[in-house]
Amino acid sequence: MTKPIYTVLFIVVFIVFLILVIPLVLFTSTHVTAEMTSDTETPAQELQAGGLFIEFEEGIGEQEVKAILENCNMTRNWIIKYNVDYMGDLYYVKVDEDKRNELNKEENWNDPVYPEIPEPRFPEIKKGNYSYIIVSEENFENESFENGSFLKVMKKHNLQVKKSIVCYILFGDGSQNWSEPKNLIPEMDAIRIKNELEMCEKVMIVSPDYLEG
Description:
213 residues; alpha+beta; 2 domains; five-stranded antiparallel beta sheet; four-stranded antiparallel beta sheet; 24% strand; elongated
C-alpha cells in the first residue's frame, strides 16, 4: 500500500511543478525576446530636405523669384541660387488645351524612346488649362533632334521651345551643413511648400532635395 501512495504523491508533485514552472519559463522567454527585439529595432528616420529645385518659365527675374518665395509659408530661412545648371539646361513648350488636342493628331513626335517602356519621349506637366512639354539638354545634343519630327511639329503649330529658369533654394544659413537641424526641413513641410509653390502660374515643377537622416 505504501508504494502506490508515494507514486500518487510523486505524480501530484510533478503536475504542480509543471503548472508552476512552465508558464514562468515561457513568460521569461517571451519577455527576453520582446526586449531583444525592442533593443535591436531601429526606428525609421524621417526624410529631411536641404533645399528645393524649382523650374520657372523663361524670363522670370531673381526679384520675382524672391517675391514668390516670400509669399509662401516657408519654415526656415532660405537663400536663392538663381538660374543654376545642376541638372543641365531644361527647355519646354507651353500649350493650351486646344493646341494640345491638335498635337494629339500628329504622329511619332512623342513616341517612347524604348517601345517596351510606354513613357513618352518628352514628359508633360499639366497645370490648369496649360501643358508644359519638357525637353532636356540631352534631346538637343542628339544629332537627329534638329531634323526630327518634334521640331517640325512645333514649327507647324507655331509653338516655341523656351528655356527654363531653374533655381535652387537652400534652407538655413547657406553653409550646407546638413548635420544642423536649422538647415533642414521635414518631408511633410517640403511637400506642403511644393504644393503651395506649384499653384503659382510661373512655377512649372518643384522638386525637394531630400537627404536621408
